[in-house]
Structure formats: structure tokens, C-alpha cells
Amino acid sequence: MTANPGFEPVFCTIIPPHVLDTLAQSDDATLAGPARRTLERDSIERTRRRLTTVIGAPPVSLPKEAAEDKPHRTIHDAKHKTELPGRKVRGEGERPGKDATVNRAYAGLGATFELYLKTYRRNSIDGSGLPLNATVHYGEKYGNAFWNGEQMVFGDGDGDIFLDFTIPVDVIGHELTHGVVQYTANLTYFGQPGALNESFADVFGSLIKQYTLGQTAADADWLIGAGLLAPRVTGKALRSMKEPGTAYDDDVLGKDPQPADMDHYVRTGRDNGGVHINSGIPNRAFYLVADALGGNAWERAGQIWYAVLTGGRLAQDASFADFAKLTVAAAREKYGDGDELKAVIDAWSQVKVPTN
Fold first, then answer.
1. Does residue 55 have a pLDDT over 50?
2. CB 152 within 8 A of CB 201
3. CA torsion, points 27, 31, 34, 36, in degrees to nearest 10?
4. Residue 155 contacts by C-beta under 8 Å, 6 or more apart in sequence?
5. Which position among 45, 150, 175, 340 bears the catalytic label?
6. Would you say 35 and 23 are in contact if contact means Cβ atoms under 8 Å apart?
7. Which phi and psi angles does 36 have, rounded to 5°?
8. DSSP assigned state of 62
9. Residue pLDDT, tens place only, 230-283
């Protein structure tokens, strides 16, 4: 069920434009060159996404496996070019090959499918068995990964700042979750609803990682993109849900700009109104709920967030406060006036988002 049946897919990347902008201005050509090419490529893909939205994407035929609640994965190799989808290199059920990037992409798509099916009874990202397609080895030192409304695409990184984008499974889960948002609440990709869009992707990307590793909320590192930054970078990940603003502090990348509460909300015209920046606020709220409840975060905390995402009451232009109120209502509806409700109310209070 969704309040927004006429979805308009958006182009969503894991690396925020402001990070690439900073790299593109570096005096070191080995860093600036790949960043500039990545920005140019992202601009082209973003335009293509808008055109596809206007003229319509080609229809997708669902495989027989869709009715059986099984994934239908296909991995393509772009061979460092930018034509999509590239050459097919692995299909559903085929044995792993020698290319570790292909194998990681295949496994990450499967891990995402499994969490949504087993935990939330959702058959693929659209709920109806949509095939999961991905392209690896995209572009020359392309420093990003994205969901373009139809498929996943992974770059290899430049090796100096970013490594292979299939390394962190939460990056794969993050981008595919943009597809889930697209087929459900379809949040506008600007300002607070855009930051909620990014936050949902981080939340469920992290849950996919935790589910895959068998981690409780206490065991998890709550980092997004750990393992993606090259050794020369002073940082541990792209974002921290537990401590927004602490993921990196690097002489080239600068300092992680994410705020942890509304007192430090960033007002900017860049990055679609700061969608990758202010997502730190709802990210931390989710972490606080999961930490207070303990156990597996994909269970009670995840069920509350998923219920709001798919419940049909979250408007496309929802603010943080709108979303917070709906999580309170969902916690009460699912669990009554117990620990879950208290954890949700307390979490939003800590990040200074009103719930009444």
C-alpha cells in the first residue's frame, strides 16, 4: 500500500556530491581527475533518469521465480565503459566465478532480498518479485554506486580515496532500499523528505549488514560504507548512524558534516538541500531506538520504521516531525504502550524532533 501510487524514480548515489566537489578541487590531479569524471557521469545519469521519468521506462517482465519468493539476480560487466547494462557475467543460480566484484554484487543483492523477504515479507524491492539487476566495473575509476530507478551500478573507485563499491554490503543494501522507497512512500528527493529518503536507505542498508553478520544492535558498528575508504583516508566510513559527524576528518575530504540533532540542522542549497547531510538526524534516532530496545535491530525497531515506510500515511513531502509522529503511532499500534513506544519517543526527543 502506498499513498503515492504514481512514483517518480530518482537518481540516488552513495557518495554525496559535496564530497566529490571537494575532491574535484584538489591540487592533486590523481584525486581531482577521477572525481571530476564521476561528477560528470553522475550529471549525465541524473539527466537520463529525468528523461526516463518523462517518457516512461520499458516494462519489466517478471520471471516465474517471482511467484516463488526467490531472487532473480543478473550481474553485468561494463568493462570500464558506461553503457548499461553491459555484458551478462552471472545469472541466478550460477556458480561463483573468479571476479570477486561480481561475486560480492551477487551476494549483496541476495542478502538484501533475504532480509526484506524473511523479516518484512516483502518479495523483492517492489514487493512483487522484481528482478535484481546490477552492473559492475562501471566507468574508468568511477567513484560512486547508484540506483537509477531500474538497476544497481557499481564503480571500482580510484584506489586512492575510494575502493571497490561492492565491498560494503550496506552500500548495496542502501542503494536497493532507494528502490523500496521508490515503490512505497516515494519521498521527494529534496530537503527533509529527501533526507528521510537517504535515512531509510542507510537504516535498511545497516540492517542488511547486521542481518548478514548476525549482529545485535550492541554488536553493530552502525557505520555506513566501512571498508570503502582507501588506507590514505583519515576516516572509518562514509557516515556514522551512532555518532553523526564523526565518520571522517581528512585533509582531502574535509570533516564529516552530518548533524546529530535539529539544533545543528544544515541549511544549504547543495546536495538537493542537504539530503546526505541532514539524514544524520533521523539516522541517529533509529540507532537510539535500536540501542534502547537491544537484540536484533531489524526486529522491533526495524518493524516500526518499515511499517511507516509502507503504511500509506507517509506523505511524499513529509518533514522529520511528520515522520517522527508516524513512528510513535506505529510503535503504539504494533506494541502498545510498552518499551517500544518509550524508546521511540525518547529517541526523537534526544535529536530534538517533536512528536506531538
1. no
2. no
3. -30
4. 38, 138, 139, 141, 142, 143, 144, 145, 162, 165
5. 175
6. yes
7. -65, -40
8. P
9. 999 999 999 999 999 999 999 999 999 999 999 999 999 999 999 999 999 999
Q: What is the pTM of this model?
A: 0.94
pLDDT at 318 over 60: yes
Q: Tell me how far apart the terminal alpha carbons of the chain are, to the nearest angstrom.
A: 25
Rounded to whole angstroms, how far apart are CA atoms 248 and 261?
A: 18
267 C-beta neighbours (distance < 10 Å), count: 9
pLDDT bin (cut points 50, 70, 90) of residue 2 is: very low
Set 76, 150, 276, 340: catalytic member: 276
* Catalytic (active site) residue 276: yes
Active site residue 137: no
Q: Check residue 4 and give its pLDDT.
A: 47
Spatial separation of the C-alpha atoms in residues 304 and 74, rounded to whole Å: 31
Q: Is 152 exposed, middle or buried (0-12, 13-18, 19+ CB in 10 A)?
A: buried
Distance CA 281, CA 264 (A): 9
Residue type, 300: R
